[in-house]
Amino acid sequence: MLAPKINPNGLRVIIGLAIGLAILAVFLVVAPGKGTIVINVSDQRGGQVGRLDVFVDGKKSPCETAPCTVQDQGTGSHEVKVVAEGYDVPAVQAVVVESRKAAVMSFTVGSSRGTGIKVSGVQAGVKLFVDDKELGPLPQDVRDLAPGDHTIRVAGSERYQPLEKHISVERDKVEDLGTITLKVLKGKVTVAPGTSGARVYIVSGSDRRELPMLPISVDIDTMKSWSLEASKPGYEDYRQLISFDDGQAEKAYTVTLEPKSAGSTAAPAPFNYASPAQAAPAPRPAPAPVAQTPAPAAEGGGGGESFLNINSIPPSTCFLDGRSLGSTPRVHVSVKPGAHTVKFVDSDDGLTKTISVSVGAGETKPAVTKLN
Hints:
Elements: H1 8-30, E1 35-43, E2 52-56, E3 59-60, E4 68-73, E5 76-84, E6 93-97, E7 102-109, E8 116-120, E9 127-130, E10 133-137, E11 140-142, E12 148-155, E13 163-169, E14 174-179, E15 186-193, E16 199-204, E17 207-210, E18 216-221, E19 226-231, E20 238-242, E21 250-255, E22 306-313, E23 317-320, E24 323-327, E25 330-335, E26 338-346, E27 351-359, E28 364-370
Parallel strand pairs: 1-7, 8-14, 15-21, 22-28
Antiparallel strand pairs: 1-4, 2-3, 2-5, 5-6, 8-11, 9-10, 9-12, 12-13, 15-18, 16-17, 16-19, 19-20, 22-25, 23-24, 23-26, 26-27
C-alpha cells in the first residue's frame, strides 16, 4: 500500500495550534489568578440585615443579602461600599485580594431610623428593662421594638426607687424619654476626718448622734433631713447639709474646721436643731437619794450607769445581748456594768460578727469592729 500524502499547509496549521496551546498552558500556570471577597453585614446588636447593595470599586455587584461572595476580583487593593435599606451608610473599606484566596470583610450598620425609645441617665448601676427583658445600663438607644404598647422599667440597687411606665411607640419613630433619675431611698455617707480631734455628729432634728471613729460609712434614711456637724475648741463650728436630690446614693465628706480668728472673742451661737428647748441637751439629773438600804452592786463591780458606743465598718444592724438596736452607729447606749455581747449583721454583703465587751460602773467603752 502507498502511504498517504501529507499536505504541507495542513502540517503547518497543526504545528501552529500545538505551539499556541503550549503557550496558553504556560500562561495559565505562570500568570496570577483572581480572588474573591466575602462580605458580612450586621446591625449594631449583631443581628442580620435585610436587603443591601454592595459596590466594589464603584461597580455594583450581584450581592443583595449578607453574607455574600463577590467572585473574580483581580489581585490588589479594592474599595468596598455597602448600602443597607433602612440604615445609615457605613464608611467605605479597603481590602487587599490575593491570588486564588478569599478576603473577608465585616460591616456594622447603624440606623438613623427605626422604631423604639431613647433613654438617658447617669446613675451608676441603673438599668433599662423593656417588657421584662434587661437591655443594659443607661443610656440606651433602642431602635428595634415592635410598634405598639410596651412596659419599660428603670431600676438599680435597693438604694433606688424603681420607675415603671407604659409607653406606645409608632412605626419608624424613636421616642425620646429624656434623662431618668431615680429617687434615692437609702443613702450612704462616708465621713473622713480633716481636722484631728474634732467631735463629729450626724444630726436630724433632735436626733443627734456622735460618730465615735473616723473614717466611717453610715446608711441614711432619705425621708429625713440630715446634716454633718462638728466642733473643736479654738475652731469655727462646722455644718454641712446632706442631700441626695441629685440622685447619687453615695456621698463622701471630709470634715475640716477653720481656726477662729485671733480677734474672735464671742462664743458662737449654738445650732437650732429643732426648737430652742432642743438646741442643747439638758444635763442628766442626778439620782434622787434613796432612804432604803442600798441594793447589792451589779455584776462588774461598783454602782452607777455604764455606756457603750457601738459601731461597725461597713454599717450594719447591731444586736445588744440579743436585742436589736437598729443600724450602726449607736452612741451612748445605756447598759448595766458587766459583760455584754454585741452582734453585727450586714445583710447586704452577708457578713456577721459577734464581739464581747466588759464595762465597769460609770464607764463608757467602745464596741467597734470591722466586718470582713
